[in-house]
Amino acid sequence: MSRRQVMFTFPQELVTEPLIFDLGRQFNVVTSIRRADVSENKGWVVLELEGNEGDIEQGLAWISGKGVRVDPVDGDIVEG
Amino acid sequence: MSYARALRCRKCGQEYPLQPRSKCDFCLSPLEVTYDYQAMAGVVSRQKIESGLKSMWRYRDLLPTEEAEVDVGTGFTPLIKADNLGRELGLDRLYIKNDCLNPTYSFKDRPVSVAATKAREFGFDTLACASTGNLAASVAAHAAKAGMKAYVFVPSNVEQGKLVGIAIYNPVLVQVEGSYDDVNRLCSVVAQKYNWGFINVNLRPYYAEGSKTLGFEVAEQLGWRAPDCVIAPTASGLMFTRIWKGLDELAMLGLIEPINTHMFLAQAAGSAPIANAFAAGTLHVHPVKPDTIATSIAIGNPADGYYALQVARQSDGGACTVTDEETIAAMKLLAQTEGIFAEAVGGVVIGALKKMTAAGMLKKDDLTVAFITGAGPRTQEIVSDVVQPLTIKANMESLEEALGVIA
After folding, report:
1. Edge-to-edge strands, sheet with B149-155
2. Which of B172, B207, B242 is the last residue of a domain?
């Protein structure tokens, strides 16, 4: 089992969609929300994903394809 | 000995032992080193610091290291009174902290020196980082000095000049094909998988502390006082917050008066998530896709962006963005007034200084310090249009004709 810590940023049109629930259900990934701030027109969620590496990758590709921005929770590792 | 006490979560306050780790297990927020300031206050004094090494390690008592430092000769760089540039901009008390003059030509030697020292204390035999240039060069140099292995990951589009400045120290240089985001993703996985001292991942809390020495030095060089205003470039937000922490610690220890420094951050317009949040009045820093010539500060998802934003707000400072054109003009202005050839980031700082002075955000009499954090020659291509020599034949007649001298 692998773990991945990421931040999702939701645009306004996706705020009301149950995407985190769908991610867990469709890709067999356990989602653990640690911090979040969601309002009617935007939102971000910091969470940990646990599952098979391949399932996590597929799940992240799927949610990115939906229009959610996915970033590592560490921020950018590549520095100047 | 060190007065470091624990790692503490900057968000929820949870504490952890001083180990290689960067995030809180609970809320996944960044950790920072905390100290026993009472014990520290009992041993530090202006006199003790002034009699120390002419390097960043004169502040050893305020850093989190226990053993002999991995030092390539970093710090105590010049703080110059920039009268020519000040006259140009309308600032009477402008100073420049010239951190181009570190061993690998950027301020990165400060945090890397602390992180490399901690890596050796923790028993790592390998240092690693992901970088577009300055950090990689510094990590490779410190690994060479410490006799450690180094793995540095760079995006495939890094300029040749930067690659040479890294490779000369003989690290394992890994050039990653793919986008900037691809490199980030890969390195995140690499950092989890291998037992390396990954400078800006598992060593990040210690790495951060090295940048406090910028604040310490400036205060000491000003005769033990804090500036009225600081202008510093901001990418991940780490250095900006640590300059502030450095000044704050000196005040806490009674080495300077309580500080009232206004902290202004400068970002490239093409990579300005923190300045955007400041302008929008929000607390959340929304990631962006960087697009700027100032590649050393091209960070779209800044790990410490929230905290940099807080420092700018709480200090009654500000944020300013600078376009690539303004950056290049400001690089030339700095070089042609003060004789300092900075990398593009220096242009961002001077460009921001110019705009904020014109907007009345900085006052003529404010004691203002601008931080120039990296040298220009590594990326000199961006200002190659300055090369316009007079071409002459090897005789006086040709010379005087070219100079317009009438015989």
Report:
1. B172-176, B149-155, B126-130, B197-198
2. B207
Q: Establish if B19 belongs to a structural domain.
A: yes
What domains are there in chain A, each with its CATH number? 2-72 (3.30.70.260)
| ipTM of predicted complex | 0.88
Q: From CA B249, how far away is CA B256, in angstroms rounded?
A: 9
Which domain does B147 fall in, by range? 4-51+108-207
pLDDT of residue B407: 61
Q: Of A46-50, A73-77, B2-6, which gets the smallest average pLDDT?
A: A73-77
Q: How far is B183 from chain A (nearest CA, A)?
A: 7
Model confidence pLDDT, tens digit, residues B42-96: 999 999 999 999 999 999 999 999 999 999 999 999 999 999 999 999 999 999 9
Extract the tokens encoding B350.
Answer: 């001077």
H/E element holding B35? strand B31-35
| Domain co-membership, B242 together with B302 | yes
Indicate the pTM of the whole model.
0.95
Contact A80 B298 (CB under 8 A): yes
Q: Which CA distances in Å does B401 have to B386, B395, B398?
A: 22, 10, 5
Question: What residues of chain A lie within 8 A of the CB of B27, using their CB?
Answer: 34-35, 46
| Interface residues on B facing A, Cβ-Cβ cutoff 8 A | 11, 22-23, 26-29, 108, 129-135, 153, 155, 180, 183-185, 187-188, 191, 200-201, 235-236, 284, 286-287, 295-305, 345, 374
Q: Is A9 in contact with B287 (Cβ distance < 8 A)? A: yes
Same domain membership, residue B345 and residue B250: yes
Same domain, B173 and B286: no
